[in-house]
Batch of 3 targets.
Target 1
Amino acid sequence: MITPIMLRSFGRSGSTLLMQVLGTSSNVIFDREYPFEKRHLTYLHRVAKVASAEAENGDDWNPDTLFDRNLKRVGPIPYVDTSIVDRSKLRTDYLLRLWNGFSSQVISKAAGSVDPSRPLYYAEKVVHDICEDVNQTLEAKNIFLLRDPRDEFLSIKSFNHKRGFKGFGWQENDSDESYALRLCDMRKTFMRHVSNLKSDHRKIFIKYESFMRDPFRFTDEIGDWLDLSLNYGEVLQARDTVSQHITSEANSIRWKSELSPRLKKIFSDNIGEELNSLGYEV
């Protein structure tokens, strides 16, 4: 069975770069199409979660709809009073078996292109809420990646402007201040979690800024952690293929010069303690 690598990060925090780094080994499998966001593991978790939920039958899903041979969407087991299975255990049981089947397919397709003497992985920019179930069920590897939310904010704003539409939860009626407040709220729990994280064989924490100061060393460290050979030089050679993703120099710290005093205060008032605990200047 393939070991999942869950890249746990946020948009404009370096996740695309880390996927490129992981992709320099053929033993890390994922769809190598920019921006590397085909989420097979998340999909399988959603299937397992829906199938094992309590029955909520309606006009479009009930026991009778099972007779529809052209059915394209399904819901939970439609029998409210079934007693032959334990619904509380089905989600992780389904996930394990779905992952086994997925792994078999991936291994078969990858035969001849991977090194059978090294570990084999599947990497994904995961949706955060699936991580607890996946870790409980599949012995996954977890890469926690954080970028200073002030620079993340500026990168989101630049990228939204570059693409011509708002993304990353930036709503039409948001001002810079309202979005900054919401971003602080969204990042606080994650920052508190990683500030106490101890790296081990299943978890590693990387600050984007630290990685960019010495990318070759950190690439080697990630490779050692995975027992694989990774090559940051290949990432540099492919830089032009993801040029549309870049909004600033990779090692730049923008917030000091580009954030207004009002925005700096919003970040310091709301996540100053978390920034300080992680070694960021406040």
Target 2
Amino acid sequence: MANVEVFNVNEKPQWCAGCGDYGILASLKAAISELNINPNETVIVSGIGCGSKIPHYLRSYGYEGLHGRILPLAEGIKMANPKLTVIGIGGDGDGLSEGGNHFLHAPRKNVNYTYIVQDNHIYALTTGQTSPTTPKGLKNKTSPTEELYEQMNPLAVALVNGTRFVAASFAGNIKHTAEMMKKAISHKGFSYLNIYQPCVSWNNVNTYQWYMQRCYDLQQAGHDSSNFDAALAKAMEPYRNGFEKLPVGIFYENNERKPLDEIHPTLAKGMIPASKDITNIDIGKMLEEAL
């Protein structure tokens, strides 16, 4: 296939001019088309937020769920039909605050889908309130003096909780972001991609220029993505150097662990069949037995 046009829709994205979501959408279309994935075999699962509108702007199946509930929805869809390519995508607020508990446990389950976090360090849809990845000291409408909390490190969290594919990219570099998406989607098991993106309306610190001055490619720098300790050190690097350098690329990749749908006794048999007689089930009898 390799034709990005098949994923286009007529609806125009309702994002601010210059939003990093445009680069992420373009990267996602390029990635899934280059992987020769058909639209009718793809499900994009999102939550609530600016970037969570992506299923509306891409021709595939889509599920825009509850705030912070991307991961259990994606897991349920993948387990119901393992043949589907399932991609969860949403903001740092949605995924790391409301959805933080799901993010902790997703690596343990290791269901075969990809989770992409659009990390602009704020809740953009609610006009700039602080999120878990808001830098300490940042001033905005919910922290008019300054943000007092320490900044969360989602890459380190993903690593220490057992994610076998962890990567990062910058939304301003569409080619690199598309490549990271392709690698993440191709990985067997739960994969995590953190995409740094500017919010041109509510975050005047982490701008395109700010990222371009700091981002560097891990693979070009000779990083060994099979080394867990090296991956964790790289994930911690920005938090130790005051974000003067920001590594992007594949932090860690390990294919030794099989995904849940290959080892679970029921899921390994393929798609879970729907009961033909589901409308004829006697719920009253079931309740009597339960009581």
Target 3
Amino acid sequence: MKVTPKKHLGQHFLKDETVSQRIAALVQKTGVKNILEIGPGTGALTKELLKYPELNVQVIEIDRESIAFLAINYPDLKVHTEDFLKANLSSIMGNDPFAVVGNFPYNISTQIIFKVLENIDQVEAVVGMFQKEVAARFASGPGSKTYGITSVLAQVYYDAEYHFSVDEDAFIPPPKVKSGVISLIRNKVTSIDCDEKLFQRTVKMSFNQRRKTLRNSLKQLWTEAGLDIEPENELFRKRPEQLSVRDFIELTQHLTV
């Protein structure tokens, strides 16, 4: 049966088998055995993942045509017919650690990572395809122009690496942008030494005015914290792209009432 890519679902089916093979190899290399693939479509990546017998592969898909296709072509594959962003992941994967993988729909790719960050106790790794600029953002470090909010929030709990770029002609239909494959591997951080909501707010306010020094962009926060004068910390004299994840945690500690 034929499956038509749907624009409203952000579908661009991967046709380059070499790319699928490289992604599957990266997944296998993480050492995580339980795999949840998001939006498998016609199974281009699924097929390569299933070549690794040690992997327990499940998929989650909302496109009815794709679901029907997978049922015919992969009858033994466990297919969850629900929206990943709304799903209870522990009800799908049980209590075991797992990896989230996929050629992610670009219109929800950042939301997918934020969903992962809500499930850090279970999601041991992410290996996926993103729009190239988004992929670079997640993997960027301090000093880079692409280093920003998503870089810091993801790298609190995950070690990020940009692996390779993919041209438009690797897909049907070709997207209007280039793509990039990254991995996020769970680090050993279980909690940060500050209020997490304040940490997220600090990061977002810092980068929303990234050309300003932090003494200016965060003035509202240190005023709210009851500090009559600027905190005596050199971090406040820097711009956000100069700070590491650890620096942002230290910054948040200084803003805690």
